[in-house]
## 1
Amino acid sequence: MLAAAIGLGSAAPAWADTTININPADTGTTAAAFRTHQCDPNLGGGPFQAEDVWVFALPAAAQQGTFTSLTIDFATEGGPARETITTTPAADRAIVGDKAWIRTPAGLSSSGQLVNPFTLTNATAMITGTDGTFNLAQTCPATGGTPSPSASAQPSDPASD
């Protein structure tokens, strides 16, 4: 009888992360070609010279919980590139609850021409909730040319002052 009780106790389900895929409609794009451009200081910032920011989101956060990791596959002219985002933040990537962001090389020349863009081909994520898909929510495409440290402090049209 005691063995049966112990056996029942160990049969309780353990909560584990769930693996989900990116919405397939969000793949096959570069940051510059993606439909939604937004640079958010809380989600990678930008725009940066020669670096794109990619932001991923869980569309049903109440059900899906939060990200615990993401694995993102890109195609480049130099071959495939795989990037991982974990709950340990880094200077170029982080998970922020139901959103995650990463900065990647944009493949821009010094004159701002797109020569080797990263193209999103696939992504999977581990989440704390139940299944579904996640989205590429927005991108912040890189700027080209020579960086100007004071560019953000200057008005976009000096004649309008």
Note: Residues 2-10 form the longest helix (9 residues).
## 2
Amino acid sequence: MLTPEYPHGQKVVVKVFTLVGDIVAAHKASGFKSHSANRFCSWCEVNASDQHKLKLGCPCTKGKVLEAANHWKDTLSEFSREKVAIRPGVPWSELNWLPYWDPVLNLCQRQRLEVFKDQRTDNEEKSLHKNLEFNDETYFALLKYLKQSHPDLCDYSMLPNLDNSLLLRKLAKKLKSINWLTGLKLSMEAPKDFVKFKSGLNEQFGRIRSILDLSDPKIHSGPLIVLEEYELVKNREKDFKQVEMFLNGLEVAHMAPTQQLVFVAVSDALGSAAYLQLPAWSLGSRNISFLL
């Protein structure tokens, strides 16, 4: 195994606990020189000479770290390797052979975020077991929606960020239903999972995919409803006035999913639209029919 101390190789036994229990050993095994290098920080590219300026550097990326590590590996002499490693602070690590290894994500970012875990109270720890972890599509759609009211809201994984930064975490408490003070009742289960909501001056429909409580009043107070949006489709194949009379005044609506997620605050939800869903072509339309 090639290491900065043994550039010609040394037979070693690798144990995983060195990457978990010792920060210095973790940085060393992952290919960072840390405090002894000009770029002492494994999270960003700030130089040691600029520490007194208290300015944040550009975030490190997997590509730049691996490029610097390969430059060290391709340098032959031990003296030259030491000079090469001092500037970027990244010598070679055998872990770089792994195709899935991302030193910035798998070590630096994860290590940084886990620091906050020890600061949670017992009650907060218990509530985490009820939380829902977003997939990337939902997370970034939610971030875009919340940025409309909080332009300074940041992606939690972007580095570096200040201690007082407003971050959107990738966890939220998942609710099965809502019984709001205004009498609004919504649920993940039919038939109260189909919602009519305000969008500007218009009324739209959507099917509930999640009901979230972000548990951070600075970002959003009250539950947030994640809907799969449906749009009304104009039917040109048949006049349904007689059909609606036959159905004793029930409204027939033809809708199609837009394949888009929309986020609706409880204050914008007009209520659940009691419905009966009919298969396509039930009433002469290729779109899904709803009796509202």
Note: The helical segments are 17-21, 23-30, 62-74, 78-86, 103-114, 122-128, 136-146, 241-246.
